[in-house]
Amino acid sequence: MYFAALLARTEDGWEASDTELDDVETLSDLAELAREASPEDDTVLVLIEQEDAWFGVVRIDGEDDPRIYVSDAAAAARSSYGEILLTDELLGREPGDDTADLDSLDLDGTEEPDGDSDDEDGGSAEAVPHSPVGDTEILDDLGVGEKELKALDAEDALGTIAEALGASEVLETVR
Description:
- Helix content is 33%, strand content 21%.
- The chain has helices spanning 27-36, 73-77, 80-85, 97-103, 120-127, 146-151, 157-165, 168-174; strands at residues 2-10, 13-18, 43-50, 54-61, 67-70, 133-134.
- The chain has a six-stranded antiparallel β-sheet, with helices on both faces.
- α7 (157-165) packs across α8.
- The protein is globular and about 45 Å long.
């Protein structure tokens, strides 16, 4: 089960709204959705979680590029919403790396799958770590430091973040 919410910082504090990500296909779409939530170019956080598996935070500050943090890249990679966040840049890959992996394969039909092979699945599993990726300082100025962010468990991360921001009540209203 997924949950996604937008937290927009305003002069009066944080405003929360739940959001549907069904029409969001790219990080640019997500950033545009977030910017629409704050006409004053204030900070907007997109909080996404897949129950007990992973969580992600996307921070939009005006027209700046989105800043992203994902708690478990490998778990997020298995999710359609997670794939939106896991850009080549975030994973430290050059755009188009996947095609280079395919070109190097010898696909003559005699391959046998095993755990030690360097086939496409093995290559992509190595490229997406079972660890956090992204901007670990994404919430530093909002009261959640790098150490605290990395220590968050996917089960209660969004509530903990909202509490640190002073936005737990508004987040709960959209849950």
